[in-house]
Write a structure and sequence with these properties.
Shape: globular
Strand content: under 5%
Structural class: mainly alpha
Order of helices and strands: EEEEEHHHHHHHHHHHHHHHH
Oligomer: single chain
Strand order of the largest sheet: 3-4-5
Number of helices: 16
Largest sheet: 3 strands, antiparallel
Helix content: 40-55%
Length: 379
């Protein structure tokens, strides 16, 4: 009973390679409408949320299911601030991690550190908040320590995103950049059952702990097919150099059958709804020259892709203008994917809570295509 390639027919059904089209859960967290180009979080348009609420409010929405009242919003801000300090036994470790460790590997290791000694199940919202609260400052301090940079004193009044930028840069951040990055955090906090979110749910389905689930999710995010490509968009911009060179560079790349970074998405068959919002944010904070280059690459790339592939046009994905926004906010390229992970922690946490409420161990099957039964040869 052999399948006929990816998605090919076989006796008894089809192999759903990559689980395409397979529904494995019911969720009330977000609705990704790929054919319509829309994204809703708890029923709200994600783009509108990114314009109107703080990341602390987004955490409340994802973990509690509703937008907070003013009193609940103040309580969430205070809770995340109070939870920022690292436990004494691990605070020293985070600044002594090997300098050769990459930034995303630091995220993975720090999450594991935060989960030391976990024995209870199921986790609660209050169990998950420390991961959201502590990781931004922990990552920033670990990264600065690895480069021999001084560690700044935290500003106790800074909000969640401002705290990250302040600890990363070592100085008080520009309020415009704080708001731009906060909009990014809200917009990227949740996006359905993607590879890393599904991984977190699989881990929790075994009655494991949230640190293991979050660590596994970040391990999935490390791969360039899922979360590791935003910095490659800027590498492409650097290779192109200037707006007038965009068309020739892209045409040559397509002739060589190279992939254009920041174009195409597994789910969306029209423009990712987050792209327009990120473009808008980029226009508010990005260097004009960088923005002009990005817009030239966007125009030439979309036009040439439609020429080359008229039957399957590709659109921009979230990484294209996310890279421009992150660069404009002062995030080093090595920290692009880790910063995305910081934003997504609230979404992962919501899925962890949803999984444990109505759990069943994830146990798919595989179609066997190896040798037929045969005897073991005699010695």
């Amino acid at each position: 009973m052999r399948s006929e390639g990816k998605g090919g027919s076989m006796e008894g059904g089809r192999v759903a390679w990559g689980l395409d089209g397979v529904v494995v859960a019911r969720t009330a967290i977000s609705d990704v409408k790929g054919t319509e180009g829309k994204l809703y979080v708890r029923g709200y348009p994600a783009v509108d949320l990114s314009r109107r609420i703080s990341y602390e409010d987004m955490v409340h929405l994802l973990l509690w299911g509703e937008l907070p009242t003013p009193a609940q919003s103040r309580e969430m801000i205070a809770s995340l601030r109070d939870l920022r300090p690292w436990p004494e036994e691990s605070a020293d470790v985070l600044v002594r991690l090997p300098r050769t460790m990459t930034a995303i590997e630091r995220v993975r290791t720090l999450l594991s550190l935060l989960g030391t000694g976990w024995e209870r199940y199921p986790p609660t919202r209050e169990d998950l908040l420390p991961f959201v609260a502590r990781l931004p400052g922990g990552l920033a301090r670990s990264w600065r320590a690895s480069r021999g940079l001084p560690l700044p004193e935290p500003d106790p009044q800074a909000n969640h995103v401002a705290h990250y930028l302040q600890q990363l840069s070592g100085s008080e951040p520009d309020p415009r950049k704080v708001r731009a990055l906060e909009s990014y955090f809200v917009l990227l906090a949740e996006h359905g059952l993607n590879a890393s979110t599904f991984t977190a749910r699989v881990v929790m389905s075994s009655w494991s702990d949230p640190a293991s689930a979050l660590t596994a999710a970040v391990g999935t995010l490390k791969g360039p097919l899922h979360g590791g490509a935003p910095s490659r968009v800027l590498d492409m911009f650097d290779a192109i150099g200037s707006p007038e060179k965009a068309e020739a560079w892209i045409r040559d790349a397509l002739d060589r059958h190279e992939r254009l970074m920041g174009f195409g998405h597994r789910v969306y068959r029209t423009e990712d709804p987050r792209v327009a919002r990120l473009r808008e944010i980029a226009r508010s904070v990005a260097d004009p020259a960088r923005l002009a280059l990005a817009e030239a690459v966007e125009e030439a790339g979309l036009r040439l892709l439609r020429e080359k592939r008229p039957d399957s046009p590709l659109y921009l994905n979230v990484e294209f203008y996310a890279s421009v926004v992150l660069e404009a906010c002062g995030i080093p390229r090595e920290l692009f994917t880790p910063t995305f992970a910081l934003a997504r922690l609230a979404g992962y946490s919501a899925h962890i809570l949803e999984q444990v409420r109505e759990n069943r161990l994830v146990r798919p099957e595989a179609e066997y295509v190896g040798p037929a039964p045969r005897p073991v040869p005699s010695p």
